[in-house]
Amino acid sequence: MIGLRNRLGSQPRTGPGSVMAAWSVLCLSLTAFDVAGAGEHSISGYVAGEARVFFHSPIHPGQKDEPELSLAVRPEYSYRSDTRDHQLRLVPFFRLDSVDERRTHADIREGYWRWLADDWELLIGMDKVFWGVAESRHLVDIINQTDLVEDIDGEDKLGQPMLMLGSQREWGEVQFYLMPYFRERTFSGESGRLRRGFVVDTDGVEYESGSREYHPDLALRYSHYLGDWDFGAYYFYGTGREPLFRFQETSESVVPVYTLIHQAGLDLQYTHEAWLWKFEGILREGQGDPFGVLVGGFEYTWYQVAQSSADLGLLLEYNYDGRDRIDAPPTVFDNDVFVGSRFALNDEQSSELLVGVTVDVDTGTTFGFLEAERRIGDEWKIEIQSRIFANVDRSDPAFGLREDSFLNLSVQRHF
Amino acid sequence: MNTLQQLHHPHKSVPLILAVLTVITTAAHAEEEPTDRGYEVAARSDRSDRGFGDSTVDLKMILRNKAGKETTRELTLRTLEIPDESVGDKSLIVFNSPADIEGTALLSHARILDPDDQWLYLPALKRVKRISSVNKSGPFVGSEFAFEDFTALELEKYEYKYLNTEAYEGMQCDIVERIPRYEYSGYTRQVSWIDQDVFQVRKVEFYDRRGDLLKILHLTDYRKYEGDVWRSHSFHMVNQQTGKSTDLVYSNYAFKTGMADRDFEKGVLKRIR
Asked: pTM score, two decimals?
């Protein structure tokens, strides 16, 4: 039986539970303010049934050798006042997993009040913020913590509590973030796949900051565009979202260690005809020697290939990471080339396929992936996803996942 | 004196020369160049739209395949009129249905001959992506409308030629051919029927890269709004080569709602919902 009672997610119990309660009260009372002016409410979201099948048997003790079935629910509630200056949004998320009790987890992805006035914006609550232009690695995307137990590509994120003050001007957009509560990364449990040889003991988590998860993290970002150039730059100071791992002899597990960092980031895109030229770079201090990381490349699209309505895109990106092997968190993107292709049918069913391969220039370690999706009727959607690990070198942080190539089928009902 | 004498005595032929010149220039005005007349008719239609300020409208898009089977999409279109004639209008399209693409949005800053500036918002990742807009002839969300059919129609994007006058659906119409001046168009030419009464486009024929008739668009249910602004509430586009069609039904038009440039900046995309 899935240990729902034991642990809902691997987060401190004070997190999502009490935030959700507080927000329900706040949202209801704010809605009361605007009762006279009605406004627009909307409810949407999806329910998804998923099956993940692994091509090889597991190699670490405790891992279960069976297909992983799960159910995910993600409703969305939005409210907007008539005068369009108040917005409320609530997006809870829940997954129930048949194999890994730590993959059974719940989160508030978004839960905020936004106030808009002239050129200003104030947001208080949990939100998801995306920064970046590259496809192979979302390098500059720092605000939200990765919900790693969802998927290993880093695109699934936990909600981030924040106060955000922003302003939109003719010379660009500026945003200031104050993040009073740190979300810890989620990891597979003992019975789960897609983990390294050791189990991550999240109860033993360590922080460099004496305030632990209550250290107020700060970020300031500027973004704008000029002609064909889109760009953004930011500065972050606070607890870095990527943990280091400290091995505990006694329990044969590792604990995550979160350190304080200073990080500056830049993202840049040049759009010209059918070309998109992309670059993301960061400089980080606080994890060993200061280091730089970059990802850069292009996306070129052939529109209406072979006289059909379909588009075919080619993606090529290079990843370089200059971090210290010991004092900085592990990464697989130290010196890698990514090649990918995007194929969109542009049909009524919005059928799309994305395939790609990342190869480590030094070791030859290869990750392949495939994502295909299609709408069925008006409300259903099917997604097929596969990740392949091949030729994984012993020195690679993903060495423990070398037998975890899988195929995932997701059937979604949207509403 | 007679003409021959005038030729030998130039100082006395000035009045004759003037008379001849007058006859020639009068004849030129009466027999106006089709390109000038075509431009005038198109300009009159384009200018009838001036001063709408900004608009919001809900669209229902009905896609019909050859067998008649229908799929529906719902969108909201917001437009901001940009007075500067060297650039085009700004527009924001937000998808409301089907449910899996709800919240997806496309922001465009139209230009005249250069490709538009466009950003796509993907709500699943909360990601704003600047995209290439050279894909003018691609189908807009799988419909029979191409991107270039949908983005703001600007007068200076075409060369015009007046063809004929004809009665169409009980209205006397000027028939004007228009040829895209901008790059990456999927059309070699279009032929539009513009009524002589309120100067609105009633029908358009689209010719593909081979010069064959590709699509015919009928614009009906025109209604007049404040400030003498006319809007069609029903577009019916039929692909003559495949038999598929797409209807656009417009409802809840609202003008001068107080929108400004800041409502059409890329930063606005993540604040839509």
From this structure: 0.89
Q: How far is B46 from chain A (nearest CA, A)?
A: 27
**Which CATH number is associated with domain B52-271?**
2.50.20.10
Q: For residue A43, give how far its alpha carbon lies from the nearest alpha carbon of chain B (Å).
A: 11
CB distance A130–B139 less than 8 Å?
no
Q: What local confidence, expressed as pLDDT, does residue A75 receive?
A: 97
- Chain B nearest-CA distance from A51, in A, is 20
The kind and range of the H/E element at B40 are helix B34-47
Asked if B271 reaches chain A (Cβ–Cβ under 8 Å), the answer is yes
Cβ atoms within 10 Å, residue A264:
16
CB contact under 8 A, A168 and B98: no
| Cβ-based contacts of A415 with chain B (< 8 Å) | 99
Restricting to A residues 49-68, those with a Cβ less than 8 Å away from any Cβ of B are none
Provide, as residue numbers in chain B, all residues whose Cβ is less than 8 Å from the Cβ of A271.
130-132
Confidence grade of residue A251 (pLDDT, cut at 50, 70, 90): confident
Given the candidates 2.60.120.560, 2.40.160.10, 3.40.50.2300, 3.30.70.270, the CATH classification of the domain at A15-414 is 2.40.160.10
| Chain segment A97-126, per-residue pLDDT in tens | 999 999 999 999 999 999 999 899 999 999
Cα separation values, A160 from A99, A128, A130, A183, A251, Å? 27, 6, 12, 7, 31
Q: Encode pLDDT of A303-357 as tens digits.
A: 999 888 899 999 999 999 999 999 999 999 999 999 999 999 999 899 999 999 9
**pLDDT band at A237; cut points 50, 70, 90:** very high
Q: Quote the pLDDT of residue B84.
A: 86
- Which tens digits make up the pLDDT trace of B181-200? 988 899 999 999 999 999 99
Flag whether pLDDT at B152 surpasses 70: no
Rg, C-alpha atoms of chain A? 22
A279-304 average pLDDT score: 97
Partner A contacted by B124 (CB < 8 A): no
- For B126, the closest of A119, A129, A276 (CB atoms) is A129
Question: A332: distance to nearest CA of chain B, Å?
Answer: 23
φ, ψ for residue B67 (rounded to 5)?
Answer: -80, -5
